[in-house]
Write a structure and sequence with these properties.
Order of helices and strands: EHEEHEHEEHEEHEEEHEEHEHH
Mean pLDDT: 95
Helix content: 25-40%
Largest sheet: 8 strands, parallel
Strand content: 15-25%
Shape: globular
Distance between the termini: 38 Å
Number of strands: 14
Low-confidence stretches: none
Radius of gyration: 19 Å
Length: 299
């Protein structure tokens, strides 16, 4: 299989590329610069900013599957920047169209729980989407546009909708990574009340799920990605404290919820389980220990 991955230097992109290449597939990573390129077998690079994505088809040629992971402004205040989020959507559509034009017949585009917006209780793929951030709005618009575009080209369209991934190499300011770092230094951990429901999925489990969506016959549409271990966020923090044996003070309630309100996530992952025979293999405890092993090796 020849697979193209935009956002090839991302947390997910690197892990997916390694899995695909290790299985003997031809992998093309689309990245912005030559910085931090990791040489891997069966892997080549294309250098392009998002505004150049309209040329991707000509730059790459025909492929079996395109996985789109590129996006600017997924964190902080940028999530509410309408101009930036709409530009992401525009560039991504142009890139996908260019790949469809050269004969790519399977599009896998990274989605987000932000598309659903705030909901109480279990979220299925049929849950009505009411996004309350510009990021979520743009991601949902992208999905609808790609769905219609792929129908015109008679191509497969799939959106793995990620809720909360974690693992070695993740962004250092995520809750898991930043709190772990503070715990290892025995520093106070300032947190929200932690009463929101949450679900963490380890990166290797997520990548295995994405690979199955890339390589197996499956229905078009959205597939929720989660671990199925849904509980209060506070419970996860307490588990990290127990694993690290930290002396850190856990200050719950020190950080207010954002103006958009408290967000709980409770993904139903039965579609992935039933239709792709996929199930998470890494418990939260195992995942945290794997991160700690990586930190120890880097020290």
């Amino acid at each position: 299989m020849k697979i193209v991955i935009t956002g090839g230097n991302s947390f997910i992109g690197k892990a997916l590329a390694k899995k695909a290449a290790a299985r003997g597939n031809q992998v093309i990573l689309v990245v912005r610069s030559r910085a931090q390129i990791e040489e891997m077998p069966n892997t080549s690079y294309v250098f392009a900013d998002m505004e150049e994505y309209k040329k991707l088809g000509n730059m790459i040629g025909v492929c079996d599957c395109m996985v789109n992971l590129s996006w600017n402004g997924t964190r902080g205040a940028a999530r509410m920047d309408r101009s930036r989020q709409q530009t992401n959507c525009q560039y991504t559509i142009a890139g996908i169209r260019s790949m469809l034009d050269v004969g790519c017949m399977r599009i896998v585009m990274a989605g987000s729980q932000a598309e659903y917006g705030p909901h109480e209780g279990i979220i299925t793929e049929d849950t009505i989407c009411t996004p309350n951030t510009e990021y979520g709005i743009a991601k949902l618009e992208l999905y609808e546009q790609v769905k219609n575009l792929c129908r015109t080209y008679k191509a497969t369209y799939i959106e793995p909708r990620f809720f909360s991934l974690y693992g070695p190499g993740d962004y250092k300011r995520t809750m898991v990574m930043s709190v772990l770092a503070a715990m290892l230094r025995n520093e106070p951990c300032k947190l929200s009340l932690g009463t929101q429901m949450w679900d963490f999925l380890y990166i290797s489990d997520a990548v295995e799920g994405i690979w199955r969506l890339c390589s197996r016959s499956c229905e078009n549409g959205v597939y929720n990605f989660g671990s199925g271990d849904v509980r209060m966020l506070k419970s996860y923090v307490l588990e990290m404290a127990e694993i690290t044996q930290t002396q850190s003070e856990l200050v719950f309630g020190a950080i207010p919820y954002p103006p958009t309100g408290m967000v709980s996530i409770w993904p139903d992952i039965s579609r992935m389980k039933n239709r792709l025979d996929w199930a998470p293999q890494v418990s939260f405890e195992m995942g945290i220990r794997k991160i700690l092993e990586g930190i120890t090796k880097e020290a």
